[in-house]
Amino acid sequence: MMRSVLLKRNWQVYRVYNYSYHIASFTRKKDAAIARVNDRSVCMAEHEINVIDHLLDVEKDASVLVSDAQMESAKRLASARSQADSEYKKQYDILIASLENQYKKDAETITQKHADALNSYKTAVEKTSRDSAAFNGLLDSYLFTA
User: Torsions phi, psi of 145, nearest 5?
Assistant: First the structure.
């Protein structure tokens, strides 16, 4: 009986040893496989990081380029706006001066025509003779006759 217990015990020890050997072997193989995957992952990750860094650099360059273009556009717009405003002011001043001159000429002409018409009316009125008797008779006929 002792022998069977000993053999049983040895067999269990062998099984435990053999099992632990297989586990250790599997663990080493698994660790090696993980290391290979990690090496590939590291290479892939480094490659992806390099690609992302390059894309970020390109985006940064594009952003700087767009910013410079916007500043240049703003400068050109300000320059064109000031030039257009100055040209508008010049044309506006010329137009206002010509309109003021025309107004003064027209006002003088109208004032002169008015003065001439008034003087001609005054002379015409002064030249007409007064017929006081006919005027008084007209008033009497309108006011006192029914």
Answer: -100, 140
